[in-house]
Each structure stands twice: as structure tokens, then as C-alpha cells.
Amino acid sequence: PATFRLGDAIKSVRESFVHLRSHVTGILPAGGTGKGLDGMSREAACLMSSLTTTAGWERVWDDHASVWERKETVIEEGGAGTLLRSSMRLKLPIAEASDMLFNFDQRRPAYEKFLKSAISLRGSTTNGDDDYIMKLKYDFGLLARMGGAPSVLTVRFLRLWDAPTSGKLTVVAVPWDMARDKHDVNHKSLSTIVTVLEADKATGGTLVRRIEVSKFGEMPAWGVRYIVSHFLAPQLQGMEKNYMEKIKAAGLAAPLERPRWRLTQLV
């Protein structure tokens, strides 16, 4: 399998995380959340280095609206794993696409089919925080429950503005262990996910690229294809349709513009 190392990661992404850490120096508890943040930056940089590579990727789904690929790889200090990446174009401009994907408030259950509730445990998307932790309750249906899919997820989100280059927004989402206040690296179904949003100047919409160390990517290609075609791809496409009809058309959109660098003080 192909191998990539931290040293090959996109330089600007690493610099963005250095910028982010510089804003929490003296705020995050030593050896606690700060250590987790550093680990997140390393893993995200590794993932980002594979967003634009071409060798070794196997296409598992392409419906012209989105493309999904997987790749067996070896991650430095992490052993073997399977990467899953996707790209899709949204009709929404980048500020509204960011609102749809990364704001969790009372509007969200109206356009995200499986989400039942979202509770802020630290930070707040409504306050424009770039570092926040959410407790998300989902209902994916009987088959998903029988398959062991969790109904409650605790996720920490970090928003990086102008990363990896000017005008782009990178969001890192990781499962979070609130009791230990650290990255839940052994979570059975959720892994680190990096999403990059870029304005599509040709259409006025948004290009969304996403990559993760997949928990189910080692399944045969037909199994991954089934999950992508029946759950992942339709969910994202359905979210945009519902957002445009129920949120934007009703004048409830809250475009997420680039604020000054600001993080919630963690104590």
C-alpha cells in the first residue's frame, strides 16, 4: 500500500494549525485539551496530504453529483488503514454551504433528515466560535440500529479559515471523549474527518471535498458502494435540497462569513 508521512503534508495546513494553537496557548489545560489539539493537527495534516493525490485510489461511486473513492494506505504511527474521500458541487454559495454543514442550531433538524437534536457541550456555533463540541443525537433507522450504528455522537469541530489557501475553509471533526477531554481515537464508528470548502467561481456554488480514515472502508468495494449510494451521497444531496426549500427560501439562512480568529476559552 502507498505510504505518506507527516513531512509530506500540505505546508499551509500545518501552518494553519500552528496559527490555531498560538491562539490557545495559555488557555487550554497543559497535557489535556492542548495535547489533543496537537494530535488532531497531525492527523488532519496527514489526511490533507492525500486529498489531491491520484495514485492508488479506487472509485466506488460516481453519479455526476458526487465522486467517492477509497485507498488502502499506511499512516505514520497509525498502522494500516483505509482512506475514503469524496468531492461534490453544491448550488449554495460558500457562506451558505458553510452554514448548512457546520452550524448546529434549532434550524438543523429541519433540513438534516437523521438528526434529532444537537446540544452544545463547549463553545457555540451561534456565537461564531471556531472550536466547539457538540452532542448529536441521530436516528438512522431500524437496520442501522441493528447493525450497531450509534444514536449519540460527541464531536469536536475546529474551523480553519483561509486554509489550506486563501478563501477556503477547512473543518476538522473528531470523536471526542468529554470525560477525559481528549480525542476518542478508539471510537467504534467515527474517525477524524477533514472537509474543505472552496467557492466555485464558475457556478457561484461550492466545491466540497472530504476525506477520512474510514471505519468501514475495508469492506469489499460493493459494500462501500452500497453505503455511499444509499446513505452518504443521498444524505448530503438531501440536506442541500431541504436547506434551500426550508431554510433559505424562508429567509432563515445565516451565512457563515470569516470572522476574526476567536476561540471559546476552555477551562
Structure description:
By secondary structure, the protein is of the alpha+beta class. Helices cover about 25% and strands about 30% of the residues. Strands 1, 2, 3, 4, 5, 6, 7, 8, 9, 10 and 11 form an eleven-stranded mixed β-sheet that branches. Helix 1 (about 10-20) packs antiparallel against helix 2 (about 35-50). The radius of gyration is 18 Å and the shape is globular.
Q: What is the overall shape? A: globular
Major sheet attributes = 11 strands, mixed
Total DSSP E strands? 11
Structure classification: alpha+beta
Portion of residues in beta strands equals 25-35%
> What is the terminal-to-terminal distance?
42 Å
What is the CA-based Rg, rounded? 18 Å
| Helicity level | 25-40%
- Which stretches are low in confidence, meaning pLDDT under 50 for 5 or more residues running? 1-14, 16-35, 144-148, 260-267
Q: Residue-averaged pLDDT, rounded?
A: 75
Helix count, per DSSP? 5
- The succession of helices and strands, N to C, reads EHHEEEHEEHEEEEEH
Describe this protein with a few key phrases.
disordered C terminus, 26% helix, eleven-stranded mixed beta sheet, 5 helices, alpha+beta, 11 strands, disordered N terminus, 267 residues
